[in-house]
């Protein structure tokens, strides 16, 4: 008999149908009338399937004690209409096996609410909870929709390197990759000789695939990269991770307005797809995590994003009369409190800011004619703040070289990147979206560590 997922059974299963279910026990309740109610979940949906195991079922006396919370079971039986409230059908079991028992004395997930801090300590088991089962399905739906969006528009999916010798952002927050015995060398030498290292030069985990994606954008057309990135920032906040996933499209012949249009379309598309495919999970997050979530997502998908320059945003913040923790001054980067004021209080809508000061943005962003600002854009959304950062790239060789020197980069290390400007340079643009921050927005979760299966943060690299 074919195994059926519980999501399929609850959606389209019919009374009289014979099914086989494989899953994990959420609860068992024994009746004094000689049967047991067992709630089973296989991770395919939020709801459990109720199974009724009669005391006359073969093996009942020997096996029912092992049907405890956390145990894995195989159930075979017939679907019947359920007289209980909130459930259309239930499974009447005629044969069952306990595939893997779970010690009820030590199994840490009992029928009570656990704190997210505790669940991070048992990340190997937290996907079995309602919250993280829903998180897994939403993250999967988001990832699938991202690929759909770009594939439908003719973008090529490009795999950029995880190990690199280039610092895309120029901030220096890089994880070094080496095969040298640093502990041994520390006792014998004062300076490392990278000629003996695996790559023969300093190498790092990538902070972005953007520079390499530009190579393909300037050869085969619009493309995107979607993979893990790493930043060694010592930021122990609810919005930062050391390892996270980035989506980075690059488009030739796109200028800044084209880039902003695509970013807005992209965010709306993905949210709508998740709303279609994970309606129950999003309703769970709306009820249990953030009761404003549905309204927040509707605000994003149903309204055109406000667009204004960084300079205009600074003027609005300065005139607001609000006392911010971080002072608002032209030339300073905007903080989360400023971004949330603009989106949640002033405009009450998503905002795209553009034309930032050159001094707070990376070298590759196109310099405006005023010489003070660059063609950068950030997409800000309510409750999260910045969810996308992007720009029109600098396509002029002389200006790009000048900006590299200004940012203190070793120009020789970027000759391959400069070559794109020597041979057939074109205007082009792109942006980056941090997957986990986007999932924070879609689920209403407060801490980004709960939006990735295994969070990597300062002093934490478990599992």
Structure commentary:
With about 475 residues, this protein is α+β, with helices and mostly antiparallel strands. It has 2 domains: about 5-100, Nucleic acid-binding proteins (OB fold (Dihydrolipoamide Acetyltransferase, E2P), Beta Barrel); about 125-450, 2-Layer Sandwich (BirA Bifunctional Protein, domain 2). Helices cover about 30% and strands about 25% of the residues. The protein contains 14 helices and 16 strands. The chain has helices at about 5-10, 60-65, 115-120, 130-150, 180-185, 210-215, 255-275, 280-290, 295-300, 310-320, 335-345, 395-405, 415-420, 435-445, and strands at about 20-30, 35-40, 50-55, 70-80, 90-100, 155, 165, 175, 205, 225-230, 245-250, 305-310, 350-355, 375-380, 385-390, 430-435. The strands form 3 sheets. The chain has an 8-stranded mixed beta sheet. It has a 5-stranded mixed barrel with strand order 1-2-3-5-4. β2 (about 35-40) and β3 form a beta hairpin. α7 (about 255-275) crosses α9. The radius of gyration is 27 Å and the shape is elongated. The mean pLDDT is about 95.
Write the layout of secondary structure elements.
Elements: H1 6-12, E1 18-31, E2 35-41, E3 49-54, H2 60-63, E4 72-81, E5 89-100, H3 116-121, H4 130-152, E6 156-157, E7 163-164, E8 176-177, H5 182-186, E9 203-205, H6 210-217, E10 223-230, E11 243-252, H7 256-277, H8 279-288, H9 293-302, E12 306-309, H10 310-319, H11 336-346, E13 351-357, E14 373-381, E15 385-392, H12 397-406, H13 415-422, E16 428-434, H14 435-443
Parallel strand pairs: 3-5, 6-10, 12-13
Antiparallel strand pairs: 1-2, 1-4, 2-3, 4-5, 7-9, 8-9, 10-11, 11-16, 13-14, 14-15, 15-16
């Amino acid at each position: 008999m074919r195994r059926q997922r519980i999501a399929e059974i609850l959606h389209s299963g019919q009374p009289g149908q014979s099914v086989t279910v494989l899953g994990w026990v959420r609860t068992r309740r024994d009746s004094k009338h000689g049967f047991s109610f067992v709630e089973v979940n296989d991770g395919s949906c939020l709801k459990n399937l109720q199974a009724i195991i009669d005391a006359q079922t073969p093996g009942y006396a020997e096996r029912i004690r092992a049907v405890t919370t956390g145990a894995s079971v195989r159930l075979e039986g017939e679907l019947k209409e359920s007289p209980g409230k909130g459930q259309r059908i239930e499974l009447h079991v005629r044969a069952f096996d306990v595939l893997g028992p779970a010690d009820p004395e030590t199994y840490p997930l009992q029928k009570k609410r656990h704190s997210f801090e505790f669940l991070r300590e048992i990340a190997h088991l937290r996907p079995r909870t309602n919250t993280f089962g829903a998180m897994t399905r939403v993250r999967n739906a988001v990832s699938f929709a991202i690929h759909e969006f770009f594939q439908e528009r003719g973008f090529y999916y490009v795999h950029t390197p995880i190990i690199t010798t280039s610092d895309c952002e120029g901030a220096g927050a890089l994880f070094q990759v080496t095969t040298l015995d640093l502990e041994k060398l520390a006792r014998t030498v004062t300076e490392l000789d990278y000629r003996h290292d695996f790559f023969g030069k300093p190498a790092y985990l990538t902070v972005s695939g953007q520079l390499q994606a530009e190579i393909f954008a300037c050869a085969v057309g619009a493309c995107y990269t979607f993979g893990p990135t790493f930043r060694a920032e010592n930021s122990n906040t609810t919005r930062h991770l050391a390892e996270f996933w980035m989506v980075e499209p690059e488009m030739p012949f796109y200028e800044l307005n084209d880039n902003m249009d695509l970013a807005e379309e992209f965010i709306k598309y993905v949210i709508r797809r998740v709303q279609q495919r994970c309606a129950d999970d999003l309703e769970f997050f709306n009820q249990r995590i953030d009761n404003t979530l549905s309204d927040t997502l509707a605000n994003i998908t149903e309204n055109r994003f406000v667009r204004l320059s960084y300079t205009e945003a600074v003027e609005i913040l300065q005139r607001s009369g609000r006392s911010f923790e971080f002072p608002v001054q032209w030339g300073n980067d905007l903080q989360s409190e400023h971004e949330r004021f603009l989106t949640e209080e002033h405009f009450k809508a998503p905002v795209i800011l553009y034309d930032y000061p050159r001094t707070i943005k990376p070298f590759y962003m196109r310099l405006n004619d005023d010489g003070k600002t660059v063609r950068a854009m950030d997409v800000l959304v309510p409750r999260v703040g910045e969810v996308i950062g992007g720009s029109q790239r600098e396509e002029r060789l002389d200006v790009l070289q000048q900006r590299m020197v200004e940012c203190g980069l070793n120009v020789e290390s970027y000759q391959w990147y400069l070559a794109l400007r020597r041979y057939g340079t074109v205007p082009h643009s792109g942006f980056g979206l941090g997957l986990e921050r986007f999932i924070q927005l879609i689920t209403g979760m407060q801490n980004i560590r709960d939006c990735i299966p295994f969070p990597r943060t300062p002093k934490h690299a478990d599992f």
